Sequence to fold (735 residues):
Amino acid sequence: MNSPAVVTVRALRTRLGAEEVLRGIDFSVDRGEVVALIGPSGGGKTTLLRALNYLTPFTTGEVAIAGLRLRPGMSERTDAAALRAVRQRAGMVFQAFHLFPHLTALGNVMEAPRHVLGLDPDAACARARALLERVGLGGHAQAYPHTLSGGQQQRVAIARALAMEPEVLLLDEPTSALDRRLVGEVLAVVADLAAQGQTMVIATHELAFARRVAHHVLVLAAGQIVESGRPEDVLDHPQSAATRALLSLE
Amino acid sequence: MRCRTHAGLLALLLIGHMAAAADAGTLARLRARGTLRWGGDIQGGEPYVYQDPQDGARLIGFEVEIAEALAQRLGVHAEFVQNDWQNLVPSLERGDFDVILNGLEVTDARRDRVAFSRPYYAFTETLVVRREAPFHDLAGLRGQRVGTLNGSLAYDLLTAAAGIEVVLYEGVQEPYLDLEQGRLAGVVLDNIIANRYGLVRPTLRAAATVGNGFYAAAVRRDDSELLQAVDGALAAMQQDGALRSILTRWGLWDDRQAPASDLPRTTTTPEPPHPRTLTQLPLFLRGAGFTVVISALAMALAIIGGLALSLAGRYGGVLPRALSGVYIEVFRGTPVLLQLYVLYYGLAPILTLNAFTAAVLGLGMNYAAYEAELYRAGLQAVPVGQSEAALALGMSRRLALRRIVLPQALRVALPGIANDFIALLKDSSLVSVITVVELTKQMTITAVDVRGWLGPGILCAALYLALSYPLSRLARWLERRLAPA
Fold:
């Protein structure tokens, strides 16, 4: 490993109520690397992604994003600055988009550069317009989210996350909430980002996409990484029962 | 055909029966009913008509005794009917009771509306001021605030004396309280009230007697039969000393209560202007102006205060949360009228607010509790994903609240806030209890002045509508405009 790891996860455990959702996770993501997180529903993919920017607190273990450490037991109140620092470096794309409905597409993308980074309005606007162009929505800058299709909304959400120029982009099943016919436009944008060297961790059910775009695949089942490796190894020669079951469903 | 004939006959019979009953006259109806219904207002307090402190269900007072003696001489029982004092005359005309017996001063203006019996009490109007104040007559009070009761003879006296700012009260305690607090320079009321409620306070003194007059019973103008009977009974009570013994028992007998036969039937009082409703339009507009200004300031306070309350309740620590909850429950769970009384009169010894400030504060603090609940609903309506998305972008919780969550919550709350503003506009009429003359109070004053409710009522309603209709259109528009996309 000659490039430094952007994401490091060690011995990560987390519980939601009585249930231990993540049961000891270790992995790292290098700069420019795309990691696909696959596995059955309920296996812990979303929890793991949310633990990476501490939207879901974890019980034990450690996460480091671009060298900034997250520890168990941090609080939104007392560790606000540390959490903000991590979150500014780890962009998040949600399954349900979560665009801000009171802002236009442009407003959604400008919001964080303007008010978190403190860019002046012109600079934030220029950055946002360029990003909307990049996700193919240059003509929809003034559109409000509810006038956009799901695929368009998710592309705005990706632009919004990229506007903070994050070290790593976390995508939580970005196409699961979309009609089949809209999945392609979003995956094309993600593939384009991968081609340009954006570090990403993508939780996905799109195995063909994972094979094509990811450098590394992690199979997460019952809160543990049951298998990991290059896509062609994991997907063509699955070692674990969980992976085989996942593949047979496709 | 037969049926119709029968129906016609029946109708004729009924009409004839009713006419016969009317012909029978008031006295016959009283005796058939067995009661003399007399109207008064127990808010006038001791010694007129009031609840027995030992037995709240029993009414006592010198007028209760006079009414009972009168009824007895008419061969019936006395039955008290509670009625707002300043509206005793219209209620008498409506037929709610047979006679008014409640410190009703004989004035020429009232004589247009009612028939007065011979007087049963001679009173004076007493000007009460603070002990150290230099005033010794009404002329010296030019430019000052002087308190009295609406519709009283004292009110006529004060409006006839130029240059005095007249402040109207609903009860007899409050003007003296405000005089003590320095909110008034003087109070002019009947000597009975002044002696019992004003001069018992060591800080106050009687400055002058500024008028005099008589209390008499009043009946409907066309009710000459009852008038004669009441006159006869009162004359008899004066002759045989019954009246004197009642007045003496209540400590009201004095030199002015001359021998019965000498009590004049008329008095000279300043004839107040007899205005028409429309000539009062500028006063109504001024009242409407007060309504708008008070409502707008109170709403501004409520909008800001409500936001603070809801944020404290949702994001604050244990203590702010508890305080916010208690505040909302207390202010929503008690009448705003009570809150206004406590704020203006109750706190006066500690914090003497002027009436306008107390009105804005009282309404604003009350409505803040309601606005807080609207914000709360708005905040709850914003999906948790919104604040997560904001936090994930590196926003602080405060920034996420200000830029992302609150704007969305406000959209949910805004139509409700506009509706509350309409409600507040109308609730603002309650501040008349703390002497602010806003639109509704102006209407009641004018109604007493012009001796009719219809004209002032319609004018007042038209002004309220002119104020609230644009607001209700705004609320509808906001509802449509901000409907969840």
Chain A has one domain: 31-45+90-249. Chain A has a mean pLDDT of 93. Chain A is about 40% helix and 25% strand. The domain at 31-45+90-249 of chain A is CATH 3.40.50.300 (Rossmann fold).
